[in-house]
Amino acid sequence: MINPVDKIIDLIEESYLMCYIALTENRDCEFELSEKDLKLVFNFINLLNDNKNSLYSIGKDYITKYFIFQFDYWKGLDTRFGQKIPLSWFIGKKAYLRWVNRKEHDLWHAKNTAKKYNLGKIKNKKKNRDLLKIQKYEELEKSRFFNKTIGFVNCIETTTLYNHRSLNCMVCKYNKDCKKLLKENYPNIYINRGYLKNEKNKIK
Prior knowledge:
Layout: H1 4-24, H2 35-50, H3 60-74, H4 88-91, H5 93-100, H6 104-117, H7 136-143, H8 149-158, H9 167-171, H10 175-185, H11 187-192
Helix pairs in contact: 1-2, 1-3, 3-6, 7-8
């Protein structure tokens, strides 16, 4: 079974890009969540859990409708960011509460906006996504002897090292050293995970 957290992360990337393209009409852009973005996503996932949602029940339809709803709210407002609405404005706590307290009229209006902007049909064309995904066997190894020297050695021998999507990596005390080793030993993976500033892995 697919890891529900990883599935939600993918859907958030796709949906945010969908909204960004609709706002800017720039279809050549790409988007991958940064480490800072991932913290926002994990907080959003916690909000979903706190509201008694089963993460396994959160699919493409839910996330797409959620983002369209937020898009509909922001598209007509004059903000200091212009057309580049930050991800936090889509999945932050205030945004989520706005979704929870939505009215039927809001959903109707968002549905019309979706038709107008052709939302839901824009795909995030990204390569090497498997290098970003969380692998169950790697997470098992990362949790083995967690935060111990022997655990770090085990990760070096059995995993593709630091991945900002991994909760284990996010809180591991060796994550900086692990990320450095990733760059030295697996530069292609390091690049594809978006850790070089000059890589086109962020919307600017």
